Amino acid sequence: MSDFTSGFWSWFIVLATVLSIAGVLWLIRWMSGGRRAPGEKVETMGHVWDENLEELNNPLPRWWLIKFYLTLVFGGVYLLLYPGLGTFKGLLGWTGIGQYEQEVAAAEVEYGPLYEKYRAIPIAALVNDPAAVQVGERLFSTYCTTCHGSDARGVRGFPNLRDDDWLYGGTSADIEQTIMNGRNGVMPGWEPILGYEGVFQAAEYVSSLSGREVDSVVAGKGKEIFVQNCAVCHGADGAGNTQMGAPNLTDNIWLHGGTQKRIQETIAGGRNSHMPPHREFLGEAKVHLLATYVFGLRVDRDITER
Description:
- The protein has three domains: 8-32 and 57-94, no CATH class; 97-182 and 277-295, Cytochrome Bc1 Complex, Chain D, domain 2 (Orthogonal Bundle); 185-275, Cytochrome Bc1 Complex, Chain D, domain 2, CATH 1.10.760.10.
- A hairpin with a 3-residue loop joins strand 1 (44-49) and strand 2 (53-56).
- Helix 8 (191-209) runs antiparallel to helix 11 (260-269).
- Helices cover 54% and strands 7% of the residues.
- It has 13 helices and four strands.
């Protein structure tokens, strides 16, 4: 097992488990002793309450002891059949991963044909099928809400999927490829190159691109910095580049926050964003339905290919 960095820990767990069971067995046998002969007076432990209620030294009831012994037997049999003693895999060879794979295989047999039925239908047409959209919504609820939120409006650092701002393109094919293969967004930190003053000036110019009131003198200096260092990714007009995943800086939509402080932090320290690929995990048919749901989230405009 990769969780164990040395054999010591495996043996440590084995000994701790076996000694614990042996200790409990000894304790039960010790507590079950002291049975008295018929007619023998029961000893008192010396504890008396309300003058009439005292603690007697009676042995544990036999039925109770039998339940304890059965519990120990069950524990021993379990540890022989299933993992629990260090790296010992158990006589049945059971693993959590194996059971998961069996359940996935069984689900694929039962539900696979349902997903495959929709796979050949273009997303632009499939988005009008309520049943297909509902399946995609359930997939989204299961696999995507952790990052994008239950309403798909995202949080800082994770895109809002209901607006019309798409880092890598918003066509159905773009969305499907994003889910299928994942995305890695990397922006380097510029403070070591520009210094604090340069970062401040560049942030002032970036703020002006979305129509904000800024210091025109500072923004003018920032424009020079932008053209020399930022335009190669974000474009000369700051409208972004979907091929590179460079955000549009003119629409006042900010993935990592749009305050002056946040913009400066982004320029100074850079940003690294990662969306894992889902092709192997979900399969192409499920991704197709998931992309259908995401494509249909843009409710504020007509759902058409652009």
